[in-house]
From TrEMBL:
Domain Carrier per the UniProt entry, residue ranges: 2-79
InterPro entries associated with the record: ACP-like_sf, PP-bd_ACP
Highest taxon of source: Bacteria
One Pfam family recorded for the sequence: PP-binding
Organism for this UniProt entry: Mycolicibacterium obuense
Designated name of the protein: Acyl carrier protein
């Protein structure tokens, strides 16, 4: 796992575990609503990832993301990591 992916996982787990304390990286495929995340949690996650990786997300494309895994894949694409 790359350091970029590790940093991203750490940030994502910080937000996800507020609502689902037992969640791990394996749960990133679960829909955000099944993890009890709301739109404010997703907005905060987006802001943290944008700041950490110096990128700007397209909110329309981000709205298409259903799970943390989708959000992670979207940001990995913005960063330029496959």
């Amino acid at each position: 796992m790359s350091s970029i992916e590790e940093r991203m996982n750490t940030i994502m787990l910080k937000i996800v575990r507020r609502r689902s304390p037992d969640a791990g990286v394996d749960d990133f495929g679960t829909a955000v609503w099944d993890l009890d995340l709301d739109s404010l949690d997703v907005a905060e996650l987006t802001e943290l990832l944008e700041k950490e990786f110096s990128v700007e997300a397209d909110l329309e494309k981000l709205d298409e993301c259903v799970s943390p895994a989708d959000i992670k894949a979207y940001f990995m694409g913005l960063i330029g990591t496959p």
